[in-house]
């Protein structure tokens, strides 16, 4: 009986830890300990277990959530105000008459909401972006073909990549799961990486949209290096190493 109660309590803690990380970004062991009213040692054991299950990544003194496996609907509710601030700055870069590639993900969706009434062309594999803009007659909307990932509201695969090879865009607004200290853009969802790379190849200018939780964020698959970026729009301080790597590659960092 005691063991069963212990397991239930541990499972509840695990849920609360993941909720905290997904809503607030990286968290320290000491902060989680205070929030949940347990010892730091207990939190460390919980983090080890959750990392073994692939649900988070431990970093020095704490952890960050693995967002790659979260359905779009869950991620869409996280850090909305921050994403909107990033989206507003990004939208201001676009001029009427230009063509814009919008990546998958929730920040690209927030950007799409800023584009209503603009006389531009939007190209996307993001089904939520398509749904947001489909009734806006001012926008020329191009939906890429491909295999539908229903929970993630995106299109992927060789058809998507082939479509992109036939297209050109003035801008790409790229999402990410994390940015490494060397400036490498990472993703947790391997199947999305070839599409992101094809988008980079199809665009004149690449703008990375990355809120504070993406430094360092997560991701096991490299999408591109800092040399492939032109601008990073973020609402959080990038660490000195990351900023240096971006600046050395000629990337402009815009902070909201």
From TrEMBL:
Residues 10-65 form the HTH deoR-type domain. InterPro entries: ArsR-like_HTH, Carb_Metab_HTH_regulators, DeoR-like_C, DeoR_HTH, NagB/RpiA_transferase-like, Tscrpt_reg_HTH_DeoR_CS, Tscrpt_reg_HTH_GntR, WH-like_DNA-bd_sf. PROSITE patterns: HTH_DEOR_1, HTH_DEOR_2. SMART domains: DeoRC, HTH_DEOR, HTH_GNTR. CDD domains: HTH_ARSR. SUPFAM superfamilies: NagB/RpiA/CoA transferase-like, Winged helix' DNA-binding domain. This is DeoR family transcriptional regulator. It comes from Streptomyces flaveus. Coiled coil: none annotated. PANTHER family: AGA OPERON TRANSCRIPTIONAL REPRESSOR-RELATED, HTH-TYPE TRANSCRIPTIONAL REGULATOR SRLR-RELATED. One of its GO terms (molecular function) is DNA-binding transcription factor activity. Keywords: DNA-binding, Transcription, Transcription regulation. The lineage of its organism: Bacteria, Bacillati, Actinomycetota, Actinomycetes, Kitasatosporales.
